[in-house]
């Protein structure tokens, strides 16, 4: 799920992880129905299009599994200003 920076999250339960890195949380969120889509295929296709058309300009396209889910955001943020991806669309990639 994606939330705006100003979204207030209320955790109903939080259990500290044994490894000190991950916590298990329970979360309840209220949102207007218009904020949801029935099928995310269009969104995922747009994300892939942005990735392929912009991230392959300076270097070969990296495989999606080349980096972990925790590593990708930092890598993308470090290069995002060098791409033609609008700031409003960067959350997709």
Describe it:
It is a single chain. The chain is of the alpha+beta class. Helix content is 25%, strand content 12%. The chain has helices at 41-55, 72-79; strands at 11-16, 23-27.
Q: What's the topology here?
A:
Blueprint lengths: L10 E6 L6 E5 L13 H15 L16 H8 L14
Antiparallel strand pairs: 1-2
The gist of it:
With 93 residues, the chain is α+β, with helices and mostly antiparallel strands.
- Report the biggest beta sheet as strand number plus sense, adding barrel if it closes: 2 strands, antiparallel
Number of helices: 2
Mean pLDDT: 85
Biggest sheet strand order reads 1-2
Strand content: 5-15%
Helix percent band: 10-25%
From the alpha carbons, calculate the radius of gyration and give it in angstroms. 16 Å
How many domains make up the 3D coordinates?
1
Describe the oligomeric state of these chains in a short phrase: single chain
**Structural shape:** globular
What separation lies between the terminal Cα atoms?
Answer: 13 Å
Low-pLDDT stretches are none
Please trace the helix and strand order, writing H or E for each element: EEHH
Helix-and-strand structural type: alpha+beta
Features:
93 residues; alpha+beta; two-stranded antiparallel sheet; 2 helices
């Amino acid at each position: 799920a994606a939330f705006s920076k100003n979204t207030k999250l209320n955790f109903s339960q939080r259990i500290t992880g044994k490894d000190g890195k991950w916590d298990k949380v329970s979360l309840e969120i209220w949102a207007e129905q218009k904020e949801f889509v029935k099928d995310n295929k269009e969104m995922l296709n747009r994300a892939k299009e942005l990735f392929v058309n912009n991230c392959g300009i300076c270097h070969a396209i990296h495989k999606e599994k080349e980096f972990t889910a925790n590593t990708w955001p930092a890598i993308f943020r470090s290069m995002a200003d060098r791409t033609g991806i609008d700031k409003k669309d960067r959350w997709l990639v």
